[in-house]
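Q:
Got a chain?
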Amino acid sequence: MKQKALGKSGLLVSELSFGASSLGGVFHEVDETEAIATVQAALDAGVTYFDVAPAYGGGRAEIVLGKALKGVDRSSFRLSTKVGKYTDPARYGCDTLDYSEARIRRSLDESARALGTEYFDIVHLHDFEYLGRTHTEWALEEGLRTLDALKAEGRIGAVGVGIYPVDLWHRILSGVTIDVALIHNHHCLSDTRLLDLIPLADNKGVGVINASPFASGLLTDRGAPAWHPADKGQREVFRRAAEFCANAGTSLAKLAFQFSSQNARIPTTMFSTANRESLRRNLEWHDEPFEPSLVAEVQSILLPVTNVDWF
């Protein structure tokens, strides 16, 4: 698999990267043995970048990923985690946001133990737009200052941010110093606003990670999980797109992955799975060309839900 430079961070990453949210059961129940085997199969296929967060499954994703990476030469892969957002899996929606230096340092220690590493190639400030954006300035001040200090101490290699809102991304990429931007749900069949952010990132040497090619499950035959805010009518639009693809001899998920992952302007596209068969399909889809005319037809169906701010 091709390895590409992640902006000016000094990191080389595989053009497909592995998001470990699925390992924490974010989308559906997970078989741990299968999840571990899936990570190992991704390594065998040439995937060299893995991303996780303590918020995924209340820490479960980090534990499972740590088991999967145990014994693997640490220099053979890039690893990132996130800080600032923490969840209780028993009480969905009861998120805690904390961007204090003390909590970030403790969080990094906890993640290091779970993942069996002393060093992270990237650490992202996570989802500080949640809870009505009341924590944004805290994250961009004390949070970033703490990550800069950890980078100077040699504990992390690059400073990143992982959030959703496009307007915040314009602000950050225009006036905040970071190394890496993890931008999710904004380069897919139903949302292409990432393309407007790439020039800003390129101008500052910020490496862009394109995450959520399936729009958090909306662009799949199964559809988005129950927690997704899309209403019944909006979900029906995606269902019609899936039906159209099936009648055209393909699947909505396949076309979505091909469209999202084959843009040469994007260093890496991050997907999440805990299943080897799903991994195999994604790898195959990435290598197959798609029909631009089919993309145009599907995007016309998706117009009522195009560029919707879901989160």
Remarks:
- The chain has one domain: 3-305.
- Residues 161 and 255 are 28 Å apart (CA to CA).
